[in-house]
Amino acid sequence: MVQKLISLSIRNRWLVLLFSIGLFVWGIYSMKQNPVDAIPDLSENQVIVFTEWMGRSPQVIEDQITYPLASNLQGIPKIKNIRASSMFGMSFVYIVFEDDVDIYWARTRVLERLNYAQRLLPEGIVPTLGPDGTGVGHVFWYTLEAPGSDLAELRTLQDWYVKYGLQTVKGVSEVASFGGFQKQYQINIDPNKLNYYNIALDDVLKAVKSSNNDVGGRKFEMSDMGYIIRGLGYIKSIKDVEDIPIGNDGTTPILVKDVASVQMGGDLRLGIFDENGEGEAVGGIVVMRYGENADRVITDVKVKMKEIAKGLPEGVKFKIAYDRSELIEASISSVKKTIIEEMIVVSLIVLLFLFHWRSAFIIIIQIPVSIAASFILLQAFGISSNIMSITGIALAIGVVVDDGIVMVENAYRHLSESQSKS
To answer: Of 1, 11, 217, 359, which one's alpha carbon is 20 to 30 angstroms from that of 251?
Structure first.
């Protein structure tokens, strides 16, 4: 078989040359398309289900949310393992799939199962899927630098402007906000006043919820023109909350301000984000989507940040806290330098060892073609160009030329013997 293959290659030298050129060009194309990262993604193929029920203890979360979800999600095909954890007000269920399962197929199956499992949960509780990222998807961290600014204002700016802008970048799965205070209207109810007016706490909650809403009406025509009638009810200030009616005392309405004090405050925090011991900071974490090119995503995020910066208030600017592109460029550059040095050293050794430039050229030409072909396989198997995969290619350069040396030496010996006999 090998002899026939060699004979076929000798008879069709131009075909072999064209095939080698095509393989080299295909490899260069795969090299440019292959995702680039500093470290390989060895995380498990998993889907995270997150459920929030604030104010409940871990035991209640475990009994009423975590256990029903984990039990019903076990029926999904190709599941390797299910892990879950419960904490104050939150539940996490980790569904680990087989390694050969497509992540988006897995997410679709989990969503289908959640539609069935949700009926077992308390009323109003909706489980959601985590971002389609991995354990190494946190590729970029930033903070909003504004000396003397209010942390609540910065968090609002992050949540309602910066976050939505960065989420439009291709390859970004999620932008997670951290630090500062999340603004909220806080109603501090006096139980003695509720008892005095004979009003239940649920009545106050229902009144506040129903009042924060716009009401649609009908179309009204007048003077050949049509007008749409609607009731405007969205809360815009503390006074709007205070003036919400929750009952009546004869003909006198009882308002929220009669039984409670209303203020603007920050949501409950379980921790703070401190930057370099200089005080609290507000910012975000950019999570890369599964299988994307980390270096390209970070570059696109930086470009988008320049556009977003034009709309920031005066004195507010971005500050990079973590940028993996620096690690990617440094590691890939180091490995590339090593590969080039090895190619040069191996080529010189082969040339000196054989001392025949045509024979040495046949062996040396295998190196770039083999390296290019390896990137085709990396792309085919979904392996990124990282420090481990490229280092493996560098280590294999010396092995690549071994068989070529043996074959050329053997061919040279047989040619010499044939010439001596003739």
So the answer is: 217
Give, rounded to a whole angstrom, the gap between the first and last alpha carbons of the chain: 29
Instruction: Give the pair of three-digit tokens for residue 167.
Output: 């989420």
Cα 321 from Cα 353, distance rounded (Å): 52
Enumerate the H helices of 212-323 as residue ranges: 238-242, 256-259, 294-309
**Angle of CA points 84, 37, 79, to nearest 5°:** 30
- The pLDDT tens digits of the residues spanning 325-336 come to 888 888 888 877
Provide the CATH number for the domain around residue 223: 3.30.2090.10
Answer yes or no: is 150 within a domain.
no
Q: 335 and 417, same structural domain?
A: yes
DSSP-assigned letter for residue 34: S
Task: Tell me what pLDDT residue 59 has.
Answer: 94
Domain range for residue 72?
44-132
Tell me, yes or no, whether 177 lies in a domain: no
What are 396-404's contacts with CB under 8 Å, separation 24+? 396/370, 397/339, 397/342, 397/343, 397/346, 397/367, 397/371, 398/342, 398/346, 400/366, 400/367, 400/370, 401/346, 401/350, 401/363, 401/364, 401/366, 401/367, 404/362, 404/363, 404/366
Stated pTM of the model:
0.79
> In whole numbers, what is the pLDDT of the chain averaged over residues?
86
